[in-house]
Design a protein that fits this description.
Length: 652
């Protein structure tokens, strides 16, 4: 599906519809976002009067209309109607966004907020001047020397596209090497049936490429790919991407201050040299298929969710889905529609978040408003962002004094009761299943999965069996479990996740003094701010170690922050005409100590939880445990005390 990314609010259609129509569409409006949008478009500040402010109390789930009462909603709709009529009669008369006006608009949604948040809020709303847009240009800083400075990006997924856009804005020559034949990374590869976002896609969009055109609250994979393709074309990024090119190795050359990158292109071996390399290879693209005795003898087809075999006939077949994580959770209901029998092999049940509209398109009235009210899509995105910015974070923090076999704090227990009662309702008529579908680890320990009832409906089906016995082997005819039962199987789907903690593998990365990155890490990847690792100058990682989010915020914002920090480092190199920049060992160590200590205090750090968030050492290697604001703030600028910058012809 094609998603048009307008970004420009001026492109909104003008309003010509009747009063009745306008009253009608307001019934389905998301008022907390519509009011500041209309205030901005018309200048009528009554729309953001204090008494209409949505309460939006921190709670396990975001309340409808931000918790606005019926009376508030009724008054808000009347004012919004007047504003729509004004837009129809006079067109937009936008507010001048001085600091005070912007603050009053922002605070309509956020309430009084710590001023430290304001830059992040501006960033997410996309208020000019655009935060993240480099205020420097390579040519201005280095004149004709800038042409000699180049950056190589590995990967044209969500992060790679973001960094190549910012590099282009800064006038830095960039080449992107992408192993696939198109952009989109994990969203290109994961095209299994049922694949869709499990966070709102207004939030899952770049701050610099916002769009009113989303057709779903939680888009299916093809819409997301459509979005990335449109962004690529609109920002002119495709011309710099070498598709079908896999990187095998990169080696730092101290003398020239460059990386030599070798790999395989569509026409054979390729070699590139660049001053800096940005790894944007993602965390979730190396499928993990467990070793199970006898699996090579299986007579049917077997494949991973991320390597879906669209050529395999599933209709009427005996299908086994191994795993009940985010991918399997979406696949199983689809398999139930086509399979003759479906076995769901569960080791650990998932916690679910009720989302009744999960697969519903955005209502027509709401879509109309998004396309006709200037700024509405921005405020809608912003409202969704704010509702989850620190969102459920307080609910997943560990209270060491809390004593409970499952939950990790009083608030976590509150969340547990909400999500457990949802599961109990869904499986109320199946006492045989109930004990198997209630998790015994704290909610937030693993990703909580959006559910519109499809999971329970699938497991209720006569031809679907939840298998909780341990898998002991695979035989030509099927799967054997610990109780000795052989489950006849035609097709095995491995929904068994990814080797997420194998950062940058299988590439060989050789840094200063010939040190191999994977030997240095020893399977325990760490970085400073997820971006820099000592001994590997001018190598930057996006969505690197400890930058994944579990219950709050947006992973796109995290990637944009890593990009901003990378650009700040590159600016230092260009401006100083330096050879290399590298994080200081003590800064790196102190940072990782801080992150480890903070992860230990989160539900996902609990010893009771095992997940892809932890590496083989049991260390949480994937997640960012601090407030989102911390990452935003720390990535705004380069602190010269954190790094060693080496001049050309200078010993490191
Ligand atoms: P995952 O969350 O790691 O789930 C893997 C599943 O396989 C788990 O249920 C795991 O059980 C099971 N498993 C692993 N090895 C097994 C074995 N040897 N025997 C039996 N079961 C085994 O992987 P995923 O579902 O692919 O999701 C990974 C991440 O991708 C998600 O957390 C999310 O961040 C992202 N994702 C996002 C979306 C979306 O936005 N819509 C969709 C899919 C994925 P245990 O829990 O017991 O280990």
């Amino acid at each position: 599906m094609h998603i048009e990314v307008t970004g420009a609010d001026a492109s909104h259609s003008s309003i010509s519809e009747s009063d009745e129509f306008l009253r009608e569409v307001l019934r389905d409006a998301e008022l907390p976002a519509l009011l500041p949008a209309l205030a901005q478009a018309t200048g009528d500040l009554r729309l953001i009067a204090r008494h209409l402010r949505p309460p939006l109390a921190v709670s396990p789930t975001v309340p409808a209309q931000g918790g606005m009462s019926e009376e508030m909603q009724s008054e808000a709709r009347d004012l919004a109607f007047e504003a729509l009529v004004q837009l129809r009669e006079q067109g937009p008369t936008p507010l001048e966004l001085d600091e005070a006006t912007l603050t009053s608009l922002l605070e309509f949604i956020t309430g009084p907020v710590d001023p430290a948040y304001v830059p992040m809020l501006r960033h997410e709303l996309g208020v000019p001047p655009e935060i993240g847009n480099p205020t420097w240009s390579a040519t201005e800083l280095a004149g004709s020397d800038a042409q000699g400075f180049s950056v190589l990006v590995i990967g044209a997924g969500m992060s790679g596209l973001a960094v190549s856009h910012r590099l282009k804005q800064a006038g830095v020559p960039v080449t992107v090497l992408e192993k696939n034949d198109d952009v989109g990374g994990t969203w290109l590869e994961n095209d299994y049936p049922g694949c869709r976002l499990d966070t709102s896609n207004f939030g899952y969009s770049y701050s610099f490429a916002q769009t009113p055109e989303w057709k779903w609250q939680y888009s299916a994979q093809d819409s997301i790919i459509g979005y990335f393709r449109t962004v690529t074309e609109r920002l002119g990024l495709r011309e710099d991407i070498k598709f079908g090119t896999t990187v095998d190795s990169m080696t730092w050359d101290e003398a020239s201050g460059t990386w030599t990158v070798k790999g395989q292109g569509p026409d054979g071996p390729v070699e590139y040299t660049a001053n800096a390399v940005v790894s944007a290879v993602g965390q979730l693209n190396k499928p993990s298929i467990p070793t199970i005795p006898g699996q090579e003898t299986f007579a049917g087809e077997a494949f991973h969710t991320a390597q879906w075999r669209h050529d395999v006939e599933l209709r009427g077949k005996n299908i086994a889905v191994i795993g009940t994580g985010a991918s399997a959770f979406q696949v199983v209901p689809e398999m139930a529609k086509v399979g003759g029998h479906v076995g769901v092999y569960q080791r650990t049940p998932p916690w679910m978040l009720p989302a009744p509209d999960y697969k519903q398109p955005i209502k027509g009235a709401m879509s109309w408003l998004l396309r006709h009210v200037p700024y509405y899509h921005r405020w809608y995105r912003f409202f969704q962002f704010w509702a989850t910015v620190e969102g459920r974070r307080p609910y997943v923090q560990v209270d060491p004094a809390w004593d409970h076999p499952v939950s990790v704090s009083e608030k976590n227990e509150e969340l547990r009761q909400v999500v457990q009662s949802y599961i109990e309702t869904e499986f109320a008529d199946r006492p045989d299943l109930l004990p198997h579908v209630i998790p015994n680890y704290p909610p937030g320990g693993k990703r909580m999965l959006r559910d519109d009832g499809s999971w329970a409906a699938a497991l209720h089906s006569d031809h679907v069996d939840l298998v909780t016995e341990r898998i002991t082997g695979i035989e030509p005819e099927g799967i054997r479990t610990a109780d000795g039962v052989l489950h006849p199987t035609d097709v095995i789907v491995y929904g068994t996740g990814f080797k997420a903690s194998d950062f940058l593998e299988p590439m060989t990365v050789v840094g200063r003094d010939g040190v191999d990155l994977h030997e240095q890490w020893g399977g325990n990847a760490k970085a400073y701010l997820g971006v820099l690792t000592p001994g590997f100058p001018n190598l930057f990682m996006l969505y690197g170690p400890n930058t994944n989010l579990v219950v709050n915020g947006s992973i796109i914002l995290m990637a944009e922050c890593s990009v901003d920090y990378t650009l700040a480092c590159l600016k230092e190199l260009v401006e100083k005409d330096a050879a290399s920049i590298e994080v200081r060992e003590d800064v790196f160590e102190a940072f990782n100590d801080e992150i480890d200590a903070a992860n230990d205090k989160m539900a996902w750090g609990s010893p009771r939880v095992s997940s892809w968030y932890k590496n083989a050492f049991g260390r949480v290697s994937q997640n960012w445990p601090l407030p989102l604001l911390e990452y935003f703030t720390r990535t705004r600028a380069l602190n010269p005390d954190d790094v060693v910058v080496t001049g050309k012809n200078e010993e490191a």
